[in-house]
Amino acid sequence: MADGASDAEDPTQGMTRGLPNYGDSGFSLFLRKAFIKGAGYTDDALDRTVVGIVNTGSGFNPCHGNMPQLIEAVKRGVMLAGGLPVDFPTISLHESFSNPTSMYLRNLMSMDTEEMIKALPLDAVVLIGGCDKTVPAQLMGAASAGIPAIQLVTGSMLTGGHRGERVGACTDCRAFWGKYRGDEIDDQEISEVNSSLVGSVGTCSVMGTASTMAGIAEAMGIALPGSATPPAVTADRMRVAEQTGTRAVGIARERLTVDKILTESSFENALRVLLALGGSTNGIVHLAAVAGRLGFDLDLATFDQLSRETPVLVNLKPAGSHYMEDLHRAGGIPMLLDRLRDLVDLDALTITGRTLGEELADRDTSFTQEVVRPREDPIYPAGSIAVLRGNLAPSGAIVKQAAATPELLEHTGRAVVFENSADMAERIDDENLDVRADDVLVLKNIGPLGAPGMPEAGYIPIPKKLARQGVTDMVRISDGRMSGTARGTIVLHVSPESAVGGPLAYVRDGDTVRLSVADRVLSLEVPDDELATRREQQPVTPPETPARGYRKLFVDQVTQAEDGADFRFLQAEQKRASVPRAR
Ligand code: FES
Ligand code: MG
């Protein structure tokens, strides 16, 4: 029983939890203590509530470059509350250092997280993540492990400066690269900007996937109120880390397990916030995966209803113009939630033990700021993401309408088809490619199974010869994902994917494709019998199952986008309900 525990009913077990089986539990504890005492611990230290801290620091992960300072601050918080903090490593994933794609490794990280949480003697765990796939992987793992857990994000990077202009990763990375491809800027300038885009350690400074998942984690109540937005290198970030450590001891003693926080209400709140943030399309896939771990099925049709009534209020790139540090100064996620009071469930329980409504009541949101817009003056009148259906996407597809070119949201055009990423790389810049600005670029085989790993290759570049003519956007369609930092009229997550024989597999050059976001339609204007003939003549053969290793597991087990591209055997055995709930 730890000093400082509030009562005699402290249910924490500390070092006695989950002993390895040597057939004699007394001996097992004796051995465990002998070993950890080798690190210099006293019996007093070991007789306390144990809070594990997941250390995802890595020299290959600059988004987590403040990990040592964060761990120190979390430990301080744990000790202030009378607990014993112990950090341990898991896999760390960075977007640019994860071949073939970080998404391929997300489920592996979730398994690592789940199994280490279950293996170690932890009364509660602080999950420190930040870069795109890490927070989803940690939430998936913790949801499956079922112990008290609290999320802490590493925080956003600072913006940099380029020739008098503020820049940040990675909406500006893409914009500058687009200019370079279009010969608008030269070698020297692109090299200069390369040194300025990432101003410090921390996660991407726009509303990409990392910022989206940070906002979602806070909105779901699994992270402390106000904890999503402090930049990585600030005192605010360190204070949040200390407070997270302190609260971790509380959730251990109260046995406030993940399933008590991540409920239907919290998923609905998360989806609302995803929409109002102008958040990353990847957020949907990740939320579907986390929900699936708890037995909830993400219902895309109901999500689309939420989208129709949830305006984009947060003015951050790529849908708007600001950066995460600006959102922080403007009051962060609590300011947004305050604007969405009538659209979120204020009775949802948060990790503080209080409801979302109680937490918001303590916040002053009356000051003037320019980043979180009032409801009557949104960045975009509807949600950032729309769900499409049609004969090209029977199980759904999505488009980030808030980051698209408005005129292209209703568009019918001729398909220019690429069979896979390699085919696209080979031909996209070919001067002889038969492509016009009003065509529709179609890329197959970048879905969960096809690539495999559903890479962010859905952001198909504008063919060089068109880019040079000043074309900056075209309708682009694929079964892959795109970075949350990207803009354009880009239809993603087409399901079923082409590699499993979805209709996308049968699109041919010259076919007519219709996109109508108003009607929520993605269709191939090819008669059914013609499609059936194509299917017969050229049936899709699923990719060969690799002989061994993680790749074999992945190919055997991965689900489609609407199920989160999680592994089948990791999803909850029992389906409980759909989220959002039917309305
Ligand atoms: Fe890590 Fe963008 S690369 S958050
Ligand atoms: Mg990203």
TrEMBL record:
GO molecular function, one term: lyase activity
UniProt domain Dihydroxy-acid/6-phosphogluconate dehydratase N-terminal: residue ranges: 48-358
UniProt xrefs under InterPro entries: Dihydro-acid_dehy_C (IPR042096), DiOHA_6PGluconate_deHydtase_CS (IPR020558), ILV_EDD_C (IPR056740), ILV_EDD_N (IPR000581), IlvD/EDD_N (IPR037237), Sugar_Degrad_Dehydratases (IPR052352)
Residue ranges constituting the Dihydroxy-acid/6-phosphogluconate dehydratase C-terminal domain according to the UniProt record: 370-565
Keyword annotations from UniProtKB, A to Z: 2Fe-2S, Amino-acid biosynthesis, Branched-chain amino acid biosynthesis, Iron, Iron-sulfur, Lyase, Metal-binding
Family the entry assigns: Belongs to the IlvD/Edd family.
Region described as Disordered: spans on this chain: 529-551
Protein's UniProt name: IlvD/Edd family dehydratase
EC number from the UniProt entry: 4.2.1.-
